[in-house]
Design brief:
7-stranded mixed beta sheet; 4-stranded antiparallel beta sheet; 15 helices; 11 strands
Amino acid sequence: MILAESPRRQRVTRLVNWGHWFALANIAIAMIIASVFIFSSPAPGTLLGALYLVCNWFGHIGFMTFSGFVIFVLPLCYLATNPRIIKLAASAIAAVGLALMAFDALLFNRTGFHLSFSSADLLRSEANTQVTEFGLQQWMYLLLLFVVWLGFQLILANAIWKRVERLQQHKIGTKVMVFFLGCFVASHAIHVWADAELYQPIVKQDNMFPLSYPATAKTTMSRYGLLDLDRYRERQQLQFDPEIHQVAYPTEPVYCNIESTRTFALVVQTDDAPLPDLPQFDLREMDNYFTTASSLDGLIHTTLFGVPEIYQGTLKDKRPVLLALPVGLGMPVSIHVDETLPTEALNGYRQPVSNNHDGLHIAFLPAAKIAEMLNNEVFANSDVIIATGFDTDGGTSRGKLYTTLNVKGKLASTEDLAPTIMNALGCHAPVQFYSTGQNLLAPQRNWLVSTSGEKVIVVHNDQMIEVLSNGSFEISDVDTRARSNDPLNVDLLSRAIKHLIHFSK
């Protein structure tokens, strides 16, 4: 004998089915709102990072929204007897929940923080500001907006209720569930690997979405010999984000005097041809000079600003202290270059090589044109720095530094040129205000740090250490470039990386 379902059981079944479709509709809305988090964050930069982003977007937002349905709405389907009350309650819950997500998205877009206890002070100050600025009319607009949003949820709930049997006929519920569950599992599985490898394009997304706690398994992996925890902690100290989006340059105002009547020439060679003889200058030679710029634009930027090329994109609208301060104090400044300058802000300094005025001359020239420039009588009694070794194919290269100055440093990089010239002109402002390099006339450290692409380059004790953004590294001999198995000086490397990024906010 077949027993018919009781009216209450039929009603509960229909409510549960309706609840699933109502939750799916709000998942779609939540994903649209969550796109604000994506557009407010830096792009992953790699295909694997983008894949993780998509999986995490679908998986986490879907899981979070469906969890809200399971916790708050599903029990009502079994406890309440009136469908109207359940639809009203579910609509109110959905409206409040998605409104909070929208507010969190706006907060994240503005500050980079999510709603949490740790951001309570920030929220309090923001709230006080907004409350003082909002009048009664603005508050009424917000209330009206929420009422409209609640009305939309009620319309959506009723529309689904009327069509729940028709929707059930499509039989796509299982497929949708498998898709979101697959995205959820895949995102956490990918993150377990990324966390163990300190893979920055994925790890840096950890704080993108609210209530996100991606899976890690370092302890378990170490227990089964899949991860060396000591090496992991070592690499963790060395990881850095090569994508810098905000900088403070200079970190402090640079106040100093210069000898504005002097003439000074800085020439950076842009090819690997032999340097011509310049007998009119008493040039001293420094062998350990390194350049890490990956392009001529990077070389120009690094020379003028005194910072590695990872800052190039963020400093495009700023003027380097090496140019701005002398000009402000009445010293003529010219840039001589055959190529286009990397930023429009520098165009005002560009002059032909034949320009023979006193002041500061900065040239980026091939070897054949260096003698042509320096043979000009205006440089007869001037100080000169000539930097060689730029690799036209990009990457780290070793050259020589020739100068009339009494340099005392034994190790130099392109970033050291700006502070050395500033000091030679009489400016004794702290170098760390405007450069990651050092003054070669009075060096303060016996190591140098720079970047090449996404690698940090540290040179110390005749060794070159190359560190990727995930903390992995390679040590090689400076002279032979042969790989070395010497132990890593983690303290020095960690200090060098912190020094490198001290302009980033």
